[in-house]
Amino acid sequence: MIEIREATKEDVGVLFELIIGIAKFHDQEQFVATNPQEMLRAGFGDTPKFGALLATYDGEVAGYLSYTWNYSIWNGADYMNMDDLFVWEAFRGKRIGEKLMLKAKHICQNKGIRLIRWEVQQDNDKAISFYDRLGAKMSPKGVFRWKF
Question: What domain range includes position 71?
Fold first, then answer.
């Protein structure tokens, strides 16, 4: 049985393991700069900077979806920015990613928000196919990062 729930501060260790898991999956572990203490401070204090959904399958942690809230000046509205969607390999193909996405959509709808936005690597055909199946549309816009 799949259960999707909001992560709590007690889940920080598990969330960090999932972040390392997705980073390894994309061969980007060297770019993870956070740690459980920072996640606890940033996500579970008085003014959380991010939210996360945890998925369990028959009681075992199976995956997560993390997000932040942003505002689009062009749309004149808030939107959810999905940071990560990840399901452990052993649990793929069980519709866990879909359930995480639908829960995120439900959270948005309850807040009167009509848009979820995210990035995907352009060579990640499986993810693109999955998002297409949900009815999402990919923009041709490039993403720049300016770190200093």
Answer: 2-134
